[in-house]
Predict the structure.
Amino acid sequence: MQVLGHHKLCAVVAAPAAEAMHRQLAQAIRQTRMIELRLDWLANDREIERFLAKLARPRGVTLIATVRRQQAGGRYRGSIAKQLFHLSEALRAGCGWYDLEIETLRRCPPELIEVLLGEGRQLRSAHFFARMPQDLTEVASELRHGGPEAIKIAARCRSLAEAWKLSRFAQRTKNLVAIPMGEVALAARILALRGKAGFAYAPIEQATASGQTSLAELKNLYRAEHINRGTRVYGVIGDPIVHSLSPVMQNTGFKARRMNAIYLPFLVEDLNDFLGSIPRFNIRGFSVTLPYKRSILEHLDGCDPLAAEIGAVNTVVVRGSGMLYGYNTDYVGVLRTLERRMPLRGSRVLIVGAGGAARAVAFALAKAGSAVSVSARRWRQATGLARAVNGRAVARRQLRHEFFDAIVNATPVGMFPAPEESPLEARELNCRLVFDTIYRPRVTHLLELAARRGAKTVSGVEMFVAQGTAQWEIWTGERAPAEAMRRAVLAALTREENSAPQGSDTP
């Protein structure tokens, strides 16, 4: 944001001990020129004093001191007098700015603020952790009283529409930092960087507000510093969505081909809210995951015949006129994954599940000549899918008496964050090969059971990359850098596995 300098990313340094704060500060200096020091995260007054005693402002770096009290959503337990004292010391130690919340200002004479903090530049802030205020103009007016250099409004947004409203208000209001909070608003926060007033806080380690994205992710994954009005926007919609590695895969593709494009995760709790936001954020295309692969169909203006036959869509293109056209690349992912490992024609394959992903698997295998069986918790859905592919439905109790060439799990059972679960028991895995469409974790509990039974196993990573590269090509019209995208996904999964606590199944 121009008010605080020409940098759009502000690193957030927050830790309970002075040494950890200095370590984070050193990391931040290597990555950005604007840093907020969350002094209220330090354990006590003594730790704050210890940190400030060794603080030396690096040349060319803007430091913002914050000592937010608990009454305003921060962690500082001391009095207002002590809060102001610490801010004053921070300014003397080299901070050029200080953030002072409106709750403190309401209780302090302006003359006292001027005497203690007059040498610094004030960012006056208001935080709404429960919901968006009804009247943003009124909030901004109160914040401006007394003439601070800049003001900040941070508010939890329960929809993309609210996040858009707050971001647009910032664009039209001089010297205002607007921060939409919450996971629903994550994509909107990043996209706000396209504008001149765009600004984002990004933690070095600990998130200090709901839905924050780390500085490393903003810079390396989303290339946030390079976002501009010409950046093409894509994304993935679902609920939940935090587990998705699609942003890693697709953004790697854009970076490899040097495209001015970005792919973002959209937590969608209300599909109509997202659909209404497509023109606001100028979204060009999106992936569809649980639970919207089937329900998205009724909102499309057109659909690929195969996707229509399957009855599920995982890829949408937004055409120039705003019309939505759907495809299904899960179908491609299934074929590319299995045809290299077994002859599909004439093979007996059991599909576990009857949702959107299961439908793509069933149609792909049936068209390839496999004899398809379907088993699902809901018998009516299982029989309906089996009938659609000229297969048969199999009750769960029959599975231990059946034999298949392959079993495919097309349910989310066993997916992060519950990797200890399995859709089938070991005695039900009477087959030569087990393919789990889940890719996170890479080796699910189902695959572990299958390996113990002596069956070959196939991770969902293969299908995930195959369907993802097909999506990338549909959106861009170019050949995807498939190997680079695959390596990025595998590297991300390896990092998760290596960082998991020893003895834990959680990635």
Q: What stands out?
A: Residues 156 and 181 are 4 Å apart (CA to CA). Confidence is low (pLDDT under 50) at residues 501-507. Residues 482-499 form the longest helix (18 residues). The longest strand covers residues 121-128.
